[in-house]
Write a structure and sequence with these properties.
Order of helices and strands: HEHEEEHEEEEEH
Number of strands: 9
Helix content: 25-40%
Shape: elongated
Number of helices: 4
Structural class: alpha+beta
């Protein structure tokens, strides 16, 4: 079929205006979304390992770590008596074996250690004091980018429930505003 040239008329201003309004709202939603994502990155969270119990024997670190979703920019805070405990950031094999003769990435021993979670990856921690790792003083966490969820990666006992979400993802707000723009116009 051929198209009749007489039917190819320019759009009227009433036909163009809703398109421009939608474009304006879409740009606003995108700017707002980017701003909120930047705020989320700035609003990193400090997590006290073991909560009130700190980094100590007898604490269930699986249960502790299941309560949280860890994202890039967050910080783990280890509080313990220096000389009684330490913190080793290790490779997974070292974590599983509790043998720190290899696979140690970082060592902390101040009693007030701050470990920034700088990458979306899996982090493994142990106490290297004799018998403590084998006694359960260890945990592994998955750290996600701020737009996705992180959490526990290693279950040392059957998991009881999952990690609680921090709130609605930022992209949901942008999607909602975008849909509002489509429906309104």
């Amino acid at each position: 079929q051929s198209t009749d040239p007489a039917r190819l008329l320019p759009l009227s201003s009433t036909q163009v205006m809703p398109s421009l309004l939608f474009l304006r709202d879409a740009i606003f939603a995108l700017i707002l979304l980017l701003h909120l994502m930047a705020l989320r990155h700035v609003a990193a969270t400090d997590y006290m390992v073991g909560d009130d119990d700190g980094w100590n024997t007898g604490t269930n670190y699986l249960a502790w770590s299941e309560k949280y979703n860890f994202t890039v920019g967050d910080v783990l805070v280890f509080r313990y008596l220096a000389g009684q405990h330490d913190v080793y950031q290790v490779m997974e094999e070292t974590y599983r074996s509790c043998n720190s003769s290899s696979g140690v990435l970082r060592r902390y021993a101040s009693g007030a250690d701050r470990v920034p979670l700088e990458a979306a990856t899996t982090y493994w921690f142990i106490c290297n004091t004799s018998g403590h790792c084998l006694g359960g003083m260890k945990f592994g966490i998955s750290v996600a980018n701020s737009s996705s969820r992180g959490g526990v990666v290693e279950a040392q006992a059957p998991a009881q429930g999952g990690a609680a979400p921090r709130g609605a993802p930022v992209w949901l707000l942008g999607l909602t505003m975008g849909m509002w723009g489509l429906l309104y116009y």
